[in-house]
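FORM 7B: Structural annotation worksheet

SECTION A. Query
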Amino acid sequence: MTENSTENGPVGVGGWLRLLVILLMGVGPVVTVAALGWAVLIQVKLIGLKPLALLGDALMLGLVYLSFTAGRDLKDLKPGAVKKAKLFFEAAMGMTVLTGVYMGNYAVFSGIGHVALLQVIEASVGFLIYSLAWHSYLSNSVRVRNTYR
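SECTION B. Predicted structure
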């Protein structure tokens, strides 16, 4: 049998793995920066959020860096790239849960309405599903296993 036989599965940055690299290096950082802009607008309107929002902004910038470097390392086939990408998704899930809990409490106790609470829950659950799906892909994909042995 040859080294690249179909029994071993696909090798290289292609298919879903290529999409993940594009998302990590391009789309993820752009969306996060847009979310930071939205957060700045909220800070202006809701002064009580300012101290925690600044910490959240710093953590989100850290996630942008981790996202970009994880995507670059996956593209360049660097050792430890899969662990770094998994770490990004784990950190993003943790940040989403913390943000969702805090903003959910704020929405409930500030009286800004149930619509805001539903939006927080919808955004949090959507990103958790996204992160869990990619984390699962990195853990179980034959292509990922064959490419980053």
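SECTION C. Observations
The first helix runs from residue 15 to 45. The CA atoms of residues 1 and 100 lie 51 Å apart.

SECTION D. Sign-off
Analyst initials: ____
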